[in-house]
Amino acid sequence: MANNKWVIAVCILAALVICVLMLVNFARGAEPVTDERIDWITDSWIAHRGLHDDKNPENTMAAFNAAIKKGYPIELDVTLTKDKQVIVFHDKKLKRLFGVDGYVNDMTYEQLAELQFPDSNERIPLLSSVLATVDGQVPLLIEIKNEGEVGELERLVYEELKGYKGPYAVQSFNPYSLKWFRINAPTVLRGQLSGTFIVSDYEVECAGTTRLPWYKRFVLSNMLMNFESRPNFIAYEIGNDGYKSIKGLKKLGVPVLGWTVDSKSTYQRVKDECDNFIVDTFDLR
Length: 285
Description:
By secondary structure, the chain is α/β, with parallel strands linked by helices. It has 13 helices and 9 strands.
């Protein structure tokens, strides 16, 4: 009788483990794309916020033109102004890049357009202006910066992209932003951004980066919301030991990009771990 109880207990435990594994596999599932639309994602390193340096600030026309000149795909970030204009800008706050202690979403585009990057003539561009300038010359990887209610930013971005002829994809840390595209624009390539979600005090203070509670970090870093976004590719952090998680992500059957490579030493450590990289410099070999 005792032996039978042990057998039953082991069977129940095994069944529970199998159920958990099945749920995890479902939650982490991706949606592979098998046609040539996705080839560019892995063909060439992608210029993080354009080809930027001291003379060409990040996410500016100068940085994008520099990337176009070299033929590099461009990664950029989009967010909304107070008056619902889609701009190309990464941070939630203006302090890191302009020294202004205010939030981007609290200002109109007219106000933001008055700001000039230090030691440069560049200003914050509209997405529409960037699309007109790039005009399909190189692929675009567009990060949706949305931590709030999903729908408005995504819709406005897609409205501008509908008539765009060049290759592009969207990506976001927010799985619900990608779900919006999955439902409303299923032909648009979408990538799930993730990583360790370790945030420095400097990033919080100067860029306005959100420091997530531990349970959200656990869910997002382990890609457990993929059942909402069903990504066609994944972009995962290589810093803060995030690269250690990448081998497991390759089992999902979609391209895995590493972000952000900024030195030769970093590249040497991760060069065999990913299908491609989002880079701050192309001087890596």
